[in-house]
Amino acid sequence: MSGAAGRVLRELRGDILRGALPQGARLTEASLCLRYDVSRVPVREALRTLAAEGFVDVRPGSGATVATITTDDADDLYAVRCTIEEITARRCAARVRAGDADGLVARLDEIVTAGLAAVHAGDPADLPGLNTRFHLTMARESGSASLLSLFRQVADRIQWVYAANVDVQGERSWTEHQGILEAIAAGDGAGAAAKAGEHIANSRSGFLETRPP
Hints:
By secondary structure, the chain is mainly α. Helices cover 74% and strands 5% of the residues.
């Protein structure tokens, strides 16, 4: 998708993923045309694509709304993440231990520093993107093309879930990122994998805290 429709798709998806348009928010064509300064045709194309991706619900007669993440969907995502991230953390640490990780620790440290700074400044807007960047960098630095490909397939949904409860998870999650980084920097594969697994388990618990009883 290119041109105006492609731009609207990128911007609308980005607004949903970072929580600027929260789950359940109504998406009228008129409001989206005004928001993105386009006609109705590219808005309709973008909504159809996002509905196919599962980020928008479109119901005849009711219009479109931002989709809601169900507990079952989140559980599936966290299960996949736990497997991927334990392995990527372990492999990153192994690369450090083997002396085959030029710049790996510095790249992760830059992201963690930015995340902690945003937390301490009380500015959560950048945290969903930084969170995805941290985990994507771990996957990339693991040296496994398969793990990186798997992570990329779920990266958008990870950011979406994180943005939905960033107020609950912000400080805790970045303290845990720092712990994962420290284990990787020490070349401690078992420790890095354990910390990554604990991080995902805690993220799941934080998500559940935001669900209605």
